[in-house]
Structure formats: C-alpha cells, structure tokens
Design brief:
This protein is of the alpha/beta class. It is 48% helix and 17% strand. The chain has three domains: 105 residues, Calcium-transporting ATPase, cytoplasmic domain N (3-Layer(aba) Sandwich), CATH 3.40.1110.10; 114 residues, 3-Layer(aba) Sandwich (Rossmann fold), CATH 3.40.50.1000; 69 residues, no CATH class. Strands 1-2-3-4-5-11 form a six-stranded antiparallel beta sheet. It has a three-stranded parallel beta sheet with strand order 8-9-10. Strands 6-7 form a two-stranded parallel ribbon. It comes from Sulfitobacter dubius.
C-alpha cells in the first residue's frame, strides 16, 4: 500500500535496488516482485544493514530505508495512515515492512511466508517425542501468533532483536530445560551460538551455518526430527558398545592373567587372546555400522512434499 504522492513503480524500483544488496529471504521476494513487474533497475550506494531493524542505502540520489516499524520509529518518521494497514497484514500472518524515501514513509510492503506443510508435520513429530516448541522471532506478535496457531507451536516470543533472542533462550533455560535453537538468518547467529545445540538450516546464511553445531542440508524442518533420532540412536549405540567392551574385558582379562590356573589349570593362549581381542573390535565396529541402516524418522513420501517459496503480496 502506497502513501499519498508516491508512484508504485518508482517506489518498488528504489526498494529493489536496496534489497539487491541484502541476503535476507524477504529481499529475494521483493526482487522477484520487481523483476515480475519489469521496473527500472538502479544501483544502490552506501548500503548499510541495521541488525534487527532493516537496511538503508542511497539510490539515484534518494535516501531509502526499508525495514520493520521499529526502524521507522527509531528514525523518528511518521507512519500515519499506513499503521492500520500494517496491523491488518500482521493479523493475517504477513510480514509487513515499511519503505521510507527521503525522510517520508512511502509504502508498507506485505511479504507472505507460507507455512510449509512439512513444518506442521515436524512440530507434531517433536510433540510426539515429548518436546515443547517455541518460536522466537523479530516479527510482530500478531504475525507470530497467527503462524503459531496454524502450526501448533506452544510458545511465542515476538518482536525481539538478536540480543533479545539470546535473552529469550536464557529465560527458557531457566526452567531447567536443554535448548535446541533452529535458525537460518544473520539475526539468528547469536542465538545459534548460545543455545545448547544450534541447528542451522543449510539454505540459510553463511554466518548462521558457521555459528551452529548441526547443519541441515535442506530447508525442511523435518530434518530436525531426523537429526534428533540419529543422535539418540548414536548415543544408544555408544552405550551398547561400552557395555559389551567393558563386559568382555572384565570376563577375559582375569583369565588371561592366570586367575583360574590355580583352580582349573586353565590358561589363555596368546594366540587365542589376540583373536578374541580382534573379535571384540569387530563386534563393536559391526554394531556401530548398524547406524547406516537408520531410516528418517519422518515418512519419506511426506518428506518429498514441497511448499511455495516466500512471495510478495500484490500492493493495493
């Protein structure tokens, strides 16, 4: 939706020039919209990313700001009549951004990030494992709660900056729970590093991937469920191997030391001892190789389901 006195094509062209310098998924959606409408292409100068707020650049002599409402408020600009439109968009689960040109709010932009069918399935699977799911986001509470209702998320923490995500993890950890955090963006990097286990989406930014302990190769959240399943089976396998290795040594080391010789005259030949030791190693290795047969916790057919990418809504 445009403010009075602004042209749609011109505003979209200026916004797209700024977003072309950004790695955020929302930027990709805006660029696709600009390409679809064939708007003029401009180059942006003096690009600045304001963490947790938005981006700023100079385009064709214009000072252009694109970001959340807190960026506009921080700059002391008047949102005016666009505030009501932003609120309606947020209640529909849309991500709403403002664009300001030369110190005037020019437009509110709605970006739809459709919930993947696989995401709701992943959350159900996490619930089946006895886990609670929270969403920590910089989006407005109305947007976050709309998505939470759709997917079955238990707890929502919205409207937070990157440092706020770290504080939210500390609050959740205060209940005595271990925390795994899943994220893909620059703003998620501090929380990924701070969580007990940071899980990065492989399709996300490089800084998020570098900050995480686990990287999922796809953008499917069901990979989180599969990672938990593989981790649990791996730890169970390690405990099994430790048990059998320890029991094996407890049983045979006394025999090899001659403990039974005074009573039974039984000694363990060095050749047999070496063979038994090799057999122990083969047993442990074979047991570990069973992990290669672990199947994904989520159904393969369901995993093949895909969802539309983030896409811009038509402006009014």
């Amino acid at each position: 939706m445009l403010a009075d006195g602004f042209d749609r094509a011109e505003v979209l062209a200026l916004i797209a020039a700024v977003e072309a310098q950004s790695e955020h998924p929302i930027a990709e959606a805006i660029l696709r919209a600009a390409e679809a409408e064939g708007v003029a292409r401009h180059d942006a100068q003096k690009f600045t990313s304001i963490t947790g707020y938005g981006v700023r650049a100079e385009v064709s002599g214009h000072d252009v700001l694109v970001g959340a409402d807190r960026l506009i408020t921080h700059e002391g600009l008047d949102i005016g009549a666009l505030a009501d439109e932003e609120r309606r968009l947020a209640e529909r689960g849309r991500t709403a951004l403002y664009a300001a040109i030369d110190g005037r709010v020019a437009a509110v932009i709605a970006v739809a990030d459709p919930v993947k069918r696989s995401s709701a399935a992943a959350i159900r699977a996490l619930h089946d494992l006895g886990l609670k799911v929270a969403m920590i986001t910089g989006d407005k509470r109305e947007t976050a709660e709309a998505i939470a209702r759709e997917t079955g998320i238990d707890h929502v923490i919205a409207g937070v900056l990157p440092d706020g995500k770290v504080a939210a993890l500390d609050d959740l950890r205060g209940t005595g729970q271990h925390i795994a955090f899943v994220g893909d963006g620059i703003n998620d990097a501090p929380a990924l590093a701070h969580a007990d286990v940071g899980i990065a989406i492989g399709t996300g930014t490089d800084v998020a991937i570098e900050s995480a302990d686990v990287v999922l190769m796809s953008g499917d959240l069901r990979g989180v469920v599969n990672a938990l399943e593989v981790s649990r089976r791996t730890m169970r396998n390690i405990r099994q191997n430790l048990f059998w290795a320890f029991g094996y040594n407890v049983a045979l080391i006394p025999v090899a030391a001659g403990l039974l010789y005074p009573v039974t005259g039984l000694l363990l030949s060095p050749v047999l001892a070496a063979g038994a030791m090799a057999l122990s190693s083969v047993f442990v290795l074979t047991n570990a190789l069973r992990l290669r047969r672990v199947r994904p916790a989520m159904d393969d057919a369901a995993k093949a389901a895909t969802a539309p990418r983030m896409s811009p809504l038509p402006a009014e």
